[in-house]
Every structure is written in C-alpha cells, then in structure tokens.
Amino acid sequence: SYELTQPPSVSVSPGQTARITCSGDALPNQYGYWYQQKPGQAPMLVIYKNTERPSGIPERFSGSSSGTTVTLTISGVQAEDEADYYCQSTDSSGTYPVFGGGTKLTVL
Amino acid sequence: EVQLVESGGGLVKPGGSLRLSCAASGFTFSNAWMNWVRQAPGKGLEWVGRIKSKPAGGTIDYAAPVKGRFTLSRDDSKNTVYLQMNSLKTEDAAVYYCSTGGGVVGFDYWGQGTLVTVSS
What we know:
The structure holds two protein chains of two kinds. Chain A is mostly beta strands. Chain A is built from no helices and nine strands. The N and C termini of chain A lie far apart (36 Å). By secondary structure, chain B is mostly beta strands. In chain B, strands 2, 4, 5, 6, 9, 10 and 11 form a seven-stranded mixed sheet that branches. In chain B, strands 1-3-8-7 form a four-stranded antiparallel sheet, with no helix packed on it. In chain B, a hairpin with a 4-residue loop joins β7 (70-75) and β8 (80-85).
C-alpha cells in the first residue's frame, strides 16, 4: 500500500523557521495537504494543493513541492504552533487518500 | 458556520456492530463529499472511507482494512452521513472523525470526533 513518510519529530526555537518534509512516490502527480492537530482537538487544514493556504491560516504557514517531496514551512514559529502535523495526499490513482505518520513539532 | 457533530460511539465487543452518525450544518450538504477518518489512541490519522455527493455520482470508497465490514451512507434530507461498522475488531478502536472534502480542497472541515472502544 502507498505510504507517505514524515520525520517523527522536529524541534525549533521561537522565532526560527520549522520545515517538515513528506515524501511519497506519487507526489509529483498528486497534491499534498497539511493538517495541524493540537492535543485533544480535531485536525485542521493548514495547506492544500501543495501551496494554498485556507482562509484564516496565518501567513507564516507555507507549503512547497519538489519531486517526490512536499514541505510545510512555518516561519517565525510561535509557541502556539506546537502540535502534530500530518501530510496527506492520494495514491497514484487519485482515489484513495493517505496520511503520513505525523510529525511532532516542539517549540523549545 | 460549518458544524459537524458525530455521535454513536461507545463500547462494543469484538465481532459486534455500531452505527456512527454525523450531523452537518452551515453548508450545502447535498453537494458535499463526506469522509470518515479515524485515529487510534496515540496514533496517526487513517482515512476510513468517503461518500461523494449525488451530483458527483455518489461513489463510495473504503480503505482496505474496513472494506466489506463498514458501510457508508448519507441522507441528504437530514444532512447526515452514517458509518455502519460490523464485525468490529480490537484494531478498529479509535476516535472517528467526520470530515468534508477529500478532493482537491483537502479535508477542509472536521467534527470533534466520537470514541469507539472495542473490547471484551
């Protein structure tokens, strides 16, 4: 079955830039999406279609894509950004959504 | 304001059945693709299944681990989507989230989830 690979954890200091990667063979042909999940809360979409930001998401959240990797970048990280982040895409057929294993972002 | 409210979770024995509901408001439900996504305790997100809107063909797709045991349905007159879960296994224990989208816009709205516990 298709898999998306994320680092288990990323740590940054406040004000620094956090980058979380997600790798998958189908990513050159399928969009990537990113979700933020804080403890006890439902996930929230922060990036869609590789680079688009939903209304209400701060500008410090951005997305990019290159080959088999999509990247979530958080510029000027704030304490409130500490959360689990999940990438999501679909398999090569475009039918079945798949989530990455998640990355825990720690703000030191 | 978009609202998704799941209900129907609880404790069930292995091999048992449970029916989850997700009541939606704040958007045109009949045009929405609806999904179920689950999260086992301390684990990541797992897509369970999707039912497209009738204008999009009403297609239903399932993740491999639940295909043949779970059934999605929708009642557009009640703005509600359902997940019938049969032959439940211990590995089905999770918080089950209802979400909209799943197409090119991603899973754009989520409910707060309902907990399913499968244990003897």
